[in-house]
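User: I'm putting together a teaching handout on how multi-component assemblies are represented. Below are the sequence lines for each component of a complex, exactly as they appear in our records. Could you produce the 3D structure of the whole assembly as structure tokens, so the students can see both representations side by side? Please keep the chain order the same as the input.
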Amino acid sequence: MANEHGGVGGLRVQAVRANARSSPATALIEMERLIGQEQVEVIVGGYANAQCIPLAARMEAAGKVFWATLCADPGVLEARRYRYVFRGAPDYAQVGAASCDFLAAVAQPKLGIAPRQLRVAIIHESGAFGAGVAAANQQVCARHGMRVVLKQVYEASTPDLAELIVELRRVRPDVVLHTGYHPDVTLFLRNALEQNLKFKALIGHGGGYAELDKLAASFGADLNYIFNVGVPAARSFLEFEDAARRLGPEQEVLLAELRRRYQALKGPGEMPPQAGLAFSQTWVLLTDVLPRALRKYGGAHAAAIRQAALDTDLPLGAAPLGQGVKFAPPASPMAGQNQRAAPAVMQYVNKRSYIAWPPALASTDVVMPFPAGHVFAP
Amino acid sequence: MKRHAALVLVLAGLLAASLLTGTAHAQGAGGAIRIGLLYDLSGPWPTAARRPATWAAASPSRWPMSTAA
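Assistant: Of course. Below is the structure of the complete assembly, with chains in the same order as your input.
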């Protein structure tokens, strides 16, 4: 797409591809090939943290730019003070913080409960994903003065979450904050339904909760009014005029074109959110960072790209999926992290994902608590 | 001494050449900016290995670290 728009500064963009095959060792070999044989100055990609952590360290040592597209574990960047590693996506800490900030804003007006009286239960799978999000949940909810009545971990491979449901019934939370993958999230919801668990709101954090189509197929209307925190998928903007209007007209056209091309390549069906995230960040690199590197810093070599990235200052709403972009400076403990990667809170209603928060992106009014008659309504 | 100076020159030349080559590659020998795209195909993701086989079979999910909806 960039080349169809005239390239970057009149130069064509040429992608040199490498497949990490979900193996950290292969990722490192391919990275060495890209910066050695292929002599690229910037690598875009990175998905699993097991790959991202060694990749980031090696790219930093080589003085080449690693433009990480997911790599959501805060530990990839935290306290590293890397100069050449940039991450545009929200990390686990930002995702975990968002649900508590959201609750702090809506608890009183929607639930009639002051944040200091709000009873919150945090449950999560035991991996870096669950533990990272849950740690931020606990820290930020506590900072808002909320009462964390339970923090419970479980193995993602567990065949049964009945005991966790018993514990939740005992502590009677107003809100459950849950972080898990696809099978365990499904298991939790199934066990909760079977054991008649009640609460006023349930907030998931990506992972299994991001798989709207699968959850809707399993739970139908019972999924209604459940929240999910993350970067909105393109469909959250394209399916709703209200949301699309929050973006600029150029972004709407861009997202529609992205979806069209994705479906032309992969067939019908929705683009996974990760694809949208990767697109959004690559678009920022090509349309904001590289032109500045060429214009202001004399080329597209790593040092120029790094300087240009540090200058990036896009307000919330400016990136294709509604994010802003401002990277933490080298002196920061989170150097290279996009400080404006603020995730949104989506609410599922009738198999659709509405943006409920922040208000700047919202396409629906928040429905909380579960309305009377809902299976989870107290 | 001469050998040492020659070596330094050779190294400096190599360094300059590599810098020039790097710049050319980055800025476009032939008018292109080359960008490495490192992606993952062919899974399974590491977390899938921790799940019971029956679940892995039942769930084609390969997006363990999504933060999006």
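A couple of points students might notice: The first strand of chain B starts at residue 32 and ends at 39. Chain B has one domain: 2-28+35-58.
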